[in-house]
Specification:
Layout lengths: L11 E3 L4 E4 L4 E6 L2 E8 L5 E3 L1 H4 L11
Antiparallel strand pairs: 1-2, 2-3, 3-4, 4-5
Length: 66
């Protein structure tokens, strides 16, 4: 089951084919081939701020099971 890499909750919903949203901390995850490929924070105005440098450093990607 998918867990948020930021707040570790299971409160995640699907918003697109490969996109998920955490209702606990308001981040959007993009998953490709079973790995998180990008993480963005959804701002109050609806814009996205990349969090890749915090969670996906050095090109490593977390493996997840859907």
């Amino acid at each position: 089951m998918l867990r948020c890499p930021n707040c570790n909750t299971h409160d995640i919903g699907r918003v697109g084919t490969n996109q998920f949203y955490c209702w606990g901390c308001f981040i959007e995850l993009t998953v490709n081939d079973g790995k998180i490929s990008s993480i963005h924070q959804v701002e109050e105005d609806g814009s996205l701020s990349s969090l890749n440098d915090l969670f996906l450093g050095d090109g490593e990607q977390d493996s997840i099971s859907l």
